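Final report, Chapter 2: Outcomes

The project's central promise was a pipeline that accepts a single protein chain and returns its three-dimensional structure in a standardized token representation, suitable for archiving and comparison. That pipeline is now operational. To close this chapter, we reproduce one record exactly as it appears in the project archive, with the input sequence first and the structure output second.
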Amino acid sequence: MKTDELVSLLAAGEVAVPRRMLPSRLALATAAGLLASIALMLGLLGIRSDLPQAAMDPMFWVKIGFAGLLIVAGLLATWRLGRPGIKLGRLPPSTTALPVLLLWLLALASLSQATPSQRVTLLLGETWSSCAFLIALLAAPLLASTLWAMRGMAPTRLRLAGASAGLFSGSLAALVYSLHCPEMTAPFIALWYLLGVAIPTTLGAWLGPRLLHW
């Protein structure tokens, strides 16, 4: 086909992107990144040996619920910002702020009932020095695959799009990491899990203008 014919064909609108291509691309990227993140967690860290017993503790489900709500927010933002001309809207910011606010309130309530020496333990736990780093590490394959998916979706607000990919990736990584993490206090989760999610979110915002332009 000659160049002039191709231009005419595109101008006529006869080349359409299948409706299911974009969600399929994002689903494929998410599945690949999640499998890689799980494999990385299993290879480096392993699942906590007392997981069945830990699942009986309500705080375990607080961790799961916190990560899950952030995943929903990140997915909605990624889906909307990945397409040109689509505004972010109000829902993703509200779904991001709500779980963070609720967790902070729970953490403050826990700290207010503890002695000064107990507060340090509640905040630092035993793994404070590695928690955020490990969440960010587990988010790396997810961020790479999500940015790949978004590049094919033709985003226009590149910094926000990259940040949403980072939020989605970091939240999924936090969910994966929770299967290993022994920490079960609200102050610890409110501080270090949130920092772990913030790292890939910030990295995504930095990478967005560099990798998502088209």
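Archive annotation: Residues 21-211 form one domain.
This record, like all others produced under the grant, will remain available to the consortium after the project formally closes.
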